Amino acid sequence: RPVVPHPPLPPADGRCLLDSLPSALTVTVCSFLSYEWRKLERHACLCRGFRERFSEDTVWQHLCSDYWFVEEEHFSQWPKIRSWRALYQTLEQWAVLEGFYSLPAAFPWCLLLLLRFERGCLVAEALRFCPAAEAQGSALAGSGAGSGRVMKEVPVRLLEVSFVEDTDGVRASIAFPADASGQILKGRGASVAPLPSQVASVLASATLFPQHHKVIPKWISASRGLSIQLDSDPTIDSAPDASSSSCRAGDAKESAAEGESEDGDIDSSSEGGEGRGEAGLDAHWHAHAWQASSSEEKLKMVTGHMLCHMLSSSGSLPLALIRSPLEYVLDDPQAPHLRPGLYVGDYGHHMYGQFKYEVLLVEFRECTRENVGELFARPVDGEGVPRMLQQILDGVPPNETCSFLVGTKVTGDIHVPAGQATFVALLSPRYAREQLDTAREAQPRQVINRSTRQQECVHSSWPGFGTLAMPGFGAPSWASGWLVRLEALPDDTGNQTGGDRFGFMWDRNQDMVVLEYIPSQLTSPFLSRK
Questions:
Q1: Integer Cα distance of 505 and 449 in angstroms
Q2: How many CA atoms lie within 13 A of 429 on its CB side?
Q3: Calpha distance 281→204 (Å, rounded)
């Protein structure tokens, strides 16, 4: 019989076994119960040894490194606080706010915002997009750049939260670089509060959507998020270089085109005097406030004014955390090898003006045939699963997994707003995909890149369906189309570049929106932390 060792007996003097461990190892064991600093410090009540351990600043340095990834090579990101215990408390309160956010109060357009620590401050930036310099006037749109990118990411700094350590602890204050002149926010005090349970759009454009409260899905009005709140009365004078304030941490209807858009083509004659008679807040959010031919600096100025006027007029700026994509890739050599995440596409409509660059959350989804309807569901009356697809899925065994690639809008337009699926492509099972191929027209061989208006060759494609809708998301329907991978482009030296360019095309017009992975996802350290 195997000999079962007896568990070690407690020390004869009554000391706790944990008390004999090194301090860093002791707090690591305690952190498995909770990483909250208040709960960690409760362990100091157990005995004198624990009290001494949790009073050591090196213990909190270990916790900062273990949980918040505060390493020497990354230390410049974090607030310059002498006490490791105070730094841990500060990060527990503020570092959890890092992430990508949408601006639901700006429905249907919304904006993409990024909150992250940078040079000791928590900064909030709106991510806008404009034509890349190398793409302007280039028939190959990005050839020679080595990546095939035609869109440039333009960060617009909205606010900064700085931290100062004093005798009473760590004090945080907000500055608004976007209002450098101090003429919009007028030095009003501000605070950070939880995201309200209900968020409504403050733009007149939202009235195009008769049921916009239903159109805004739960994942945009997320339970996780924050709200920048302005105090009712000014508390300090406007600074010449920035409008700043102390921060208390807290637990005219726009006329549109007549006609259908897929996110598709629009009759240019139907622009219909968009924006006439707009005033106040909506004038700053006018689609034509910035044009593609304008400078990058003007885009930054316009965006800063848009956000500051929204904050000033409504008194708050709610930011809803964008949920993470389902991070897995299909183990199938014939599946599109896309990295799940946020992508941007040029929808190419002049009437969308500054909002023609739209952000999508692209992810792989798996489900049985019984649950496919969830991918095609609408918040208002509209088609369910397309009939052609449903007939093919009826032949799939009930327990077999079906795989799809889904693109959901994070920012939107007056036809298909933020929060709605813009395309769904069938990837597997392979035999079902081939049946869908056979039931439709021949696979595309060449498409027109909507950004460059150049004809390009198709490397591979997968059948799918894209959204069609009237203004105000009226009568939404699913139209047949293709998820497309384009052939690589030659650069100036003849080398092939941009070989993993994907997009979606609609059958009816044979042009496609090419999607580009948003670079900030590669340079945001919080995405690699625990």
A1: 9
A2: 15
A3: 9
pLDDT tens digits in sequence order for the chain, 530 residues long: 666 666 666 666 666 666 677 777 777 777 777 778 777 777 777 777 777 777 888 888 888 888 787 776 666 788 888 888 899 889 988 988 999 999 988 988 999 999 999 888 999 999 999 888 644 433 333 323 335 677 889 999 999 999 988 888 888 888 888 887 777 887 677 888 888 877 888 888 888 887 666 666 544 556 688 899 887 754 444 333 444 444 443 333 333 333 455 554 433 333 333 333 345 677 778 887 776 566 888 889 889 989 999 998 888 899 989 887 766 666 777 778 888 999 999 887 777 888 999 999 999 999 999 999 999 988 777 678 999 999 999 999 999 999 999 999 999 999 999 989 999 999 999 999 999 988 887 788 888 888 888 888 898 999 999 998 888 888 889 999 999 998 877 655 555 555 568 999 888 777 888 999 998 998 877 766 54
**Please, what sign has the CA dihedral across residues 366, 211, 409, 505?**
positive
* Cα distance between residue 413 and residue 516, in whole Å: 19
Tokens of 272: 């219909």
CA dist 258 and 238 (Å) reads 45
Dist. CA 82–CA 170, nearest whole Å: 10
Each as own residue / partner, the long-range contacts of residues 483-486 (CB below 8 Å, 24 or more positions apart, any chain) are 483/336, 483/405, 483/423, 483/425, 484/444, 484/447, 484/458, 484/460, 484/512, 485/336, 485/458, 485/459, 485/460, 485/461, 486/447, 486/449, 486/456, 486/457, 486/458, 486/459, 486/514
CB 174 within 8 A of CB 242: no
By DSSP bridging, strand 455-470 and strand 446-449 are antiparallel
DSSP, residue by residue, 260-275: -BSS----GGG-TTTT
Cβ atoms of 430 and 488 within 8 Å: the answer is no
Amino acid identity at 410: V
**For the range 277-281, what are the long-range contacts, defined as Cβ-Cβ under 8 Å and sequence gap of 24 or more?**
277/252, 278/204, 278/252, 278/254, 279/252, 280/313, 281/202, 281/203, 281/309, 281/310, 281/313, 281/314
Partnered with residue 424 across adjacent β-strands are 406, 465
Give the bridge partners for 261, in sequence order: 469
* Cis geometry, peptide bond prior to residue 108 (ω within 30 degrees of 0): yes
- Taking CA atoms, 462 is separated from 335, 423, 434, 452, 517, in Å, by 9, 12, 9, 23, 19
**Three-state secondary structure of 95-146:** HHHCEEEECHHHCCCCCEEEEEEECCEEEEEEEEEEECHHHCCCCCCCCCCC
* Cα 129 from chain centroid (whole Å): 14
DSSP code string of 467-514: EEEETTTEEEEEEEEEEEEEPPEE-TTS-EE-TT-EEEEETTT-EEEE
Question: DSSP 3-state assignment of 406?
Answer: strand
Cα→Cα distances 189→21, 166, 236, 237, 245, Å = 48, 20, 7, 10, 5
